[in-house]
Amino acid sequence: MPPREAPARAGAMRLQVRGLTVRFGGLAALTDVDLDVADGQVVGLIGPNGAGKTTVFNAVSGLVRTAAGTITVAGRPAPRAPSGLARAGVARTLQGLGLFPGLSVRENVEVGALAAPDPGAPDPAARTLRALDDLGIADRAALPVGALPYPEQKKVALARALVADPRLLLLDEPAGGLGAADIAELDAVVRRVAATGCAVLLVEHHVDFVMGLCDRVVVLDFGRVIADGLPDDVRRDPAVTAAYLGIEVTAP
Ligand SMILES: Nc1ncnc2c1ncn2[C@@H]1O[C@H](COP(=O)(O)OP(=O)(O)OP(=O)(O)O)[C@@H](O)[C@H]1O
């Protein structure tokens, strides 16, 4: 895949994080984190285990109390309640999928459609079918989601986020557990979503996927931003290589 070109129009700032600090008791999970994602941009958030990546997502989603800093979505303070976030156009996927195994594929995705009612949009059932179709799993709609192979369950989780037509999409390890063909498909889906103007922030351990897809990459280590820039510059940053201690972050 070629690197993504910059969006044709410089997108407005969708997510802006400034000075974000989160503590769990005596542990500083995040310290003074700054992060920007513009409309149409794909930003990767990487870092070793425990660096604070998921905590950033949880702070943006109102799931953890922040000790300091500001989080704005489209220039306004990020809503803290799920309904407010949905109205602000924020959707996320979870590391653990978070699907309801007893419900059908269609019902799982409809949960996302109902969470973000938009009077101008088609009804939830139609939106659900469109989202499943976009990801090539419309023929799975009636099956219990637990009966699907893992890569298809990941597509269902993604469809549940996309069905709300988000303006800010938070993807938590979307490539985790996927093989090369599924990752290539995922890469194409994320590019397509960003091309509609949606801002995408993705947490991922699969460094090659991140470097190939993202417009910018932010690296966290021990809760602090140690690099923020173009993928090629981040790859070459000695602080990043040191943080990964032996994990290959350079181009093959
Ligand atoms: N609810 C919590 N209570 C206490 N400590 C927490 C909590 N959530 C996260 N932490 C701690 O905060 C730090 C950052 O965790 P976080 O899950 O954000 O890291 P991460 O970069 O997403 O890691 P991974 O790549 O392993 O998912 C870790 O030290 C973790 O143990």
TrEMBL record:
Keyword tags: ATP-binding, Nucleotide-binding, Transport
CDD domains listed in its UniProt record: ABC_Mj1267_LivG_branched
Alphabetized InterPro entries for the sequence: AAA+_ATPase, ABC_AA/LPS_Transport, ABC_transporter-like_ATP-bd, BCA_ABC_TP_C, P-loop_NTPase
SUPFAM superfamilies: P-loop containing nucleoside triphosphate hydrolases
PANTHER family: ABC TRANSPORTER ATP-BINDING PROTEIN, CONSERVED COMPONENT OF ABC TRANSPORTER FOR NATURAL AMINO ACIDS-RELATED
A Pfam family this chain is assigned to: ABC_tran
Residues covered by the ABC transporter domain: 15-247
Protein name, per record: ABC transporter ATP-binding protein
Species lineage: Bacteria, Bacillati, Actinomycetota, Actinomycetes, Micrococcales
PROSITE patterns on file: ABC_TRANSPORTER_2
GO molecular function, one term: ATP binding
